[in-house]
Design goal:
By secondary structure, the chain is of the alpha/beta class. The protein folds into 2 domains: 71 residues, Helix Hairpins, CATH 1.10.287.180; 79 residues, Roll (Chitinase A, domain 3). 39% of the residues lie in helices and 25% in strands. Strands 5-4-3-7-6 form a 5-stranded mixed beta sheet. Strands 1-2 form a two-stranded parallel sheet. β3 and β4 form a beta hairpin. The longest helix has 30 residues. The protein is elongated. The relative contact order is 0.15.
Length: 157
């Protein structure tokens, strides 16, 4: 499946740096652990060697996943997108209909989601429910706890 992954320039740079770090330093560290464990004798009964090899497999899997993500990614800038509706990278202020409480979310790709920073994924239930809505519209969003009703108060970049 070759789904496009939309990332901000900052996140793309961060992921590239993570990949570089894993390829250079991560691989060196694992190789040295394997070499050290090899020096302890019989590999068939060497738990330290098995653990180092497992760490190597895990590292290579993470490198592969990150390379795949970066190969499918497209860098987007919120200034290039319209702000008439809720799209990816939109900051949207919503008013919860039951409580009247206002919340601001920024819709981002799953790779950039961070609930503590109110960055929600466009693939999350709330993200999906807000996508495409305009100011003044009510979004009814089914979540595990029931149905949320949000009025779209403001859309910005």
């Amino acid at each position: 499946m070759s789904d496009v992954v939309y990332l901000t320039k900052e996140k793309f740079i961060e992921l590239e740096a993570d990949l570089r770090e894993m390829k250079i330093n991560g691989r060196k560290q694992v190789a040295s652990k394997i070499a050290e464990a090899r020096g302890h004798g019989d590999l068939s009964e060497n738990a330290e060697y098995d653990a180092a090899r497992e760490e190597q497999r895990h590292l290579e899997y993470r490198i592969s996943k990150l390379e795949d993500t970066l190969s499918k990614s497209r860098v987007i800038d919120s200034k290039d997108l319209p702000n008439d509706k809720v799209y990816i990278l939109t900051k949207v202020t919503v008013k919860e209909q039951k409580t009247g409480k206002k919340i601001e979310y920024q819709l981002v790709s799953p790779e950039e989601a961070n609930f503590e920073q109110n960055k929600i994924s466009t693939t999350s239930p709330i993200g999906k429910g807000l996508m495409g809505k305009k100011v003044g519209e009510i979004a009814e969003i089914k979540v595990p706890a029931g149905t949320l009703k949000y009025e779209i108060v403001e859309i910005s970049r």
